[in-house]
């Protein structure tokens, strides 16, 4: 992984302000949002299959989408990356660290791809590994958490490859959810086991 970060030293878990760096993998480039990403994000939030797989019921207007893209890069309490497919140089989705707790060294992990045409190409797997590595090896976080629908086994497999383990289950609004977590020690064990290689899914 290659990381490009403005400023000396980079961020750490105790830093109040997080700045989204550029992370480079073999097949994806993770970078901050730009105004020009609004069209692709609008397409993604309108994707019915993606909304179904995340049980997303909220709706967004185009004006709301444009406004969000224009402000998210300045957020200092979360990290929002565009997943860009390196070969084509196009927007393939997003990956996020949010809901951080600096005292406990934790954050929530979330990823979404642009639509069905982007599934099964290994982009989500590689983006997940890149962000997990950055979270533990650069930010110094102690634990990442996430929630995934029980009826979304593809996403579960991606998270399991990165080392996430089931930590609980919930039933909410008619849906069964699986809670997962990845600790820094678990990440180190997985990273040593994969030898830096990311499986494609």
UniProtKB/TrEMBL annotation:
It comes from the Bacteria. InterPro entries: Acyl_CoA_acyltransferase, GNAT_dom. Residues 28-185 form the N-acetyltransferase domain. SUPFAM superfamilies: Acyl-CoA N-acyltransferases (Nat) (SSF55729). PROSITE patterns: GNAT (PS51186). This is GNAT family N-acetyltransferase. It comes from Demequina zhanjiangensis.
